[in-house]
Specification:
211 residues, alpha/beta, TIM Barrel, eight-stranded parallel beta barrel, 8 strands, globular, binds ribulose-5-phosphate, EC 4.1.2.43
Amino acid sequence: MKLQLALDLVNIPEAIELVKQVEEYVDIVEIGTPVIINEGLHAVKAMKEAFPSLQVLADLKIMDAGGYEIMKASEAGADIITVLGATDDLTIKGAVEEARKQGKSIMVDMINVKNIEQRAQEVDALGVDYICVHTGYDLQAVGKDSFEELQTIKRVVKHAKTAVAGGIKLATLPAAIQAQPDLVIVGGGIATQEDPRSVAREIRNQLNQGA
Ligand SMILES: O=C(CO)[C@H](O)[C@H](O)COP(=O)(O)O
């Protein structure tokens, strides 16, 4: 199981400092949507230049103009770019087509998709690389998580890799590991902890043991 660190509540220098501390334990660094809103795709470029051996994910949550937005994120150096599962198939097809041209990967974020089972099968058939179940901040705040949805996509997705995101921390990691996703995404569970390096190391150990 791979580990993605989501960076949401930092500026570019803070993001780079944090990744320096945890670099050896993570596979993918996510430039979160708030960072891209604040700093633009420069944040993706800066991260890729600072850590060329890490994969960088641009959490654009694309909803329209799939091909164009994938092209711009690719130019900035993103390896993986997110598209929303709630959008139209045409947008996802455009994104997949452009990603193939650029040698990049598409992650479909299933945030707020109501019929996860059906939509996961549909987006899987469109040739995306990852399908991610995700409980966003607003639903985390009322106690929701994505572990049941993770089991659902594990059952029906045949081609894409599976991922889970949303409020995952050391205490809830076992529930994620139990469902055996390909990728676990952790933001605040590492980034806002007192000792991000030791937490990242512990998460890495548990993922290795659970694999
Ligand atoms: O995409 C996001 C919010 O929309 C976050 O990056 C994702 O939820 C992971 O962060 P956290 O572990 O802090 O929830």
